[in-house]
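Section 5: illustrative case.
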């Protein structure tokens, strides 16, 4: 079986090189499951953006194909992208195509799959993917319409949580199932709990990174580490401005190094307005690091499994951070719950088994038609 994964910004993760542009949880998940598929004997191909690499590479069991995804909103460039995309896809000849982002490629990909008889799996990213009011307000009208049409063309949709599952069922005509994100690195018991409060994310508006300096200023007795994936000197100095001496701001940290921050932190905090299922939660919980989230709690897992706190307001957010930092025994209890939860619900082999079941179902349907 041949599977093609479309993930424009995944190239740095696939090659283990520093990311010069935004590479986040979506790319990490695609790389994680793609590598696992390859280890299961599946012929795995990735379509990635132009990072200055050759048109084709083979790395650690994965075929990597370059497609210039930078369209900059221009119709001519978009048309050229689609033609290039179809040409590369036809050359690959995959049985199944998987895409998470970008949304504006979903309809052209669906058209290709319909013409060739191959199958299309859409993987949900954020809960806003199924929020029609939000999409109409924030997406370009053409992108919104093409996304809605693309969903109708999907053969299977993988949601990250129950809210997404319900939303996709209302928007699509295909089976929808929840498959949790897989954990992507080795768990460790060697974390030091160095007394730091960790935030990991990017500079996108819905991550609300500016709230972290506010928390640091309000809690001057605590030490905060902030890792901003797309940080650039001279661009985001306001995060650490105004004498916030207890906040350390870092830019991109390579994947193979970032686990140390999760392992050593006392807490991971999250300030996002919208998420699907944050990979940072899983990365923290693998190491027994509890989470304090301002608003995000996918399927109520934090509250139901005792994995940390969900605050609801910024004032309570500060209280929860301070409370847990003053109570090491409670952090340890949450950490034990976190390790057990990840082992039970986010095991990579189990996640891959669920995808393999979908592949078999789609292959059987294709053979019958």
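Designed sequence:
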């Amino acid at each position: 079986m041949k599977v093609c994964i479309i993930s424009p910004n995944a190239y740095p993760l696939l090659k283990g090189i520093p990311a010069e542009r935004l590479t986040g949880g979506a790319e990490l998940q695609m790389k994680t499951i793609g590598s696992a598929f390859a280890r299961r004997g599946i012929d795995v191909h990735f379509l990635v953006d132009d990072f200055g690499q050759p048109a084709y590479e083979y790395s650690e069991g994965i075929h990597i194909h370059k497609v210039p995804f930078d369209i900059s909103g221009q119709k001519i460039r978009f048309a050229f992208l689609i033609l290039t995309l179809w040409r590369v896809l036809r050359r690959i000849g995959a049985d199944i195509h998987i895409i998470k982002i970008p949304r504006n490629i979903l309809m052209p990909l669906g058209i290709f799959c319909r013409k060739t008889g191959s199958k299309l799996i859409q993987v949900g990213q954020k809960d806003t993917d199924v929020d029609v009011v939000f999409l109409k307000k924030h997406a370009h009208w053409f992108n919104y319409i093409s996304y809605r049409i693309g969903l109708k063309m999907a053969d299977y949709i993988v949601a990250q949580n129950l809210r997404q599952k319900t939303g996709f069922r209302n928007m699509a005509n295909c089976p929808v199932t929840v498959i949790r994100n897989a954990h992507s690195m080795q768990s460790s018991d060697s974390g030091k709990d160095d007394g730091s409060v960790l935030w990991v994310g990017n500079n996108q508006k819905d991550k609300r990174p500016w709230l972290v300096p506010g928390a640091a200023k309000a809690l001057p007795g605590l030490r905060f580490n902030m890792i901003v994936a797309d940080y650039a000197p001279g661009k985001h100095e306001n995060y650490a401005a105004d004498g916030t001496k207890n906040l350390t701001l870092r830019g991109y940290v390579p994947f193979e190094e970032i686990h140390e921050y999760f392992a050593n932190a006392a807490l991971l905090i999250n300030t996002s307005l919208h998420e699907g299922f944050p990979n940072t939660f899983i990365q923290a919980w693998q190491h027994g690091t509890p989470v304090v989230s301002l608003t995000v709690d996918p399927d109520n897992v934090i509250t139901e499994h005792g994995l940390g706190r969900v605050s609801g307001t910024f004032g309570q957010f500060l209280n929860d951070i301070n409370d847990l930092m003053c109570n090491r025994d409670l952090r340890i209890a949450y950490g034990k719950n976190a390790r057990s939860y990840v082992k039970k619900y986010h095991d990579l082999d189990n996640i891959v088994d669920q995808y393999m079941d979908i592949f078999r179902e789609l292959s059987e349907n294709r053979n019958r038609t």
